[in-house]
Amino acid sequence: MRAYNKSRIVGQLLFVALGITFIYYLFTPSVSHSNAVKPKARKADINSINVYDMNEITASANARENKEEVLILSPIARFYPEYWKNLLKLSYPRNLITLGFILPSTRDGTKIHRDLRAAVQSVQKGPISERFADVKIMIQDTGLSSGQSEKQRHEREVQKERRSKLASARNALLFSALGPKTSWVLWLDSDIIETPPTLIEDMTQFNKDVLVANCFQRKGEKLVPYDYNSWIDSNVAKELASKMSKDDILLEGYIELPTYRTLMAHLHDENGDQKTLMRLDGVGTTALMVKAEVHRDGAVFPTFPFYNLIESEGFAKMATRLNYEVFGLPNYLVFHYNE
Ligand SMILES: Nc1nc2c(ncn2[C@@H]2O[C@H](COP(=O)(O)OP(=O)(O)O)[C@@H](O)[C@H]2O)c(=O)[nH]1
Ligand SMILES: [Mg+2]
What we know:
The protein is an alpha/beta fold. The protein has a single domain (about 55-335), classed as Alpha-Beta Complex (Spore Coat Polysaccharide Biosynthesis Protein SpsA, Chain A), CATH 3.90.550. Helices cover about 35% and strands about 20% of the residues. Strand 1 (about 70-75), helix 3 (about 80-90) and strand 2 (about 95-105) form a beta-alpha-beta unit. Bound molecules: guanosine-5'-diphosphate and magnesium ion. The site of magnesium ion has 3 residues, from loops. Guanosine-5'-diphosphate (GDP) binds near residues 75, 146, 153 and 169.
């Protein structure tokens, strides 16, 4: 009797347990992503269809009147409050400007991120009329050392690797930030601390595919050339390049390897017309205005020696090979931080 009762109780318990398990599975929603997430995703897909007519994008001499969107891109290894202050002084309508930054994912990068965010937030949380259209901050480990001094950065041996990584950061920034309505891309290095407030209007008015300003440093009263990457090629340089391995790069601004290229930095005339234009074969990125179409067509910053050129100088070559025209403004100055 006792044995019979025991097995009956065990059987009943088992039955109840099975029943509870069955009811649990019947009413508990599955945690598998396919069931739980799909309906939501489907709904979001329907809402996120955006159609852009790329033929409507203009990049013209009347950028402001035509409400052309400008993307300002700055890889940023150091945050200079002067850069930000200068950026805020630009007169182009902010609702037509998107900002894009790429920072290293290092300890330095964390500090830059904090300073940059604070600066961005103070504007983007302010009056709507004063906000930028959008601000995109990308964080990426480029393996670059952002703690290098001006002298260390410019050592010839470190240039190939450094500029290759910088090119890679620029391309990542460009591909992530370029929008379907962007008309112009203004490359503005994060250590450019002074430009005319009308920089965007001034540079777009020429309606050039690629246009670079002349970058100097202020040393007391003196104006000193800074960026030697904007140049016209020379026969000597072409000859030198023709004898180089395809993996070598022909750098500018090194006494031990004179190229006799015509450097825009040396053609600055203080009393000259600011609107003077010159054709160039190489450009720097300190303040470089590019029609978005040039990038969309495939001109990027080569991370490898391209015709023995790399990064911004390689970009100028690539744009030229794509039949775009590259120009510089020798008498139109922007200023680099003086380390
Ligand atoms: N994201 C990122 N940007 C960098 C790094 N190193 C330099 N940059 C930025 O790239 C631009 C050009 O670099 P910079 O060191 O100023 O070159 P230089 O003035 O020609 O010596 C500047 O805007 C820098 O802040 C890096 O490690 N990571
Ligand atoms: Mg610099």
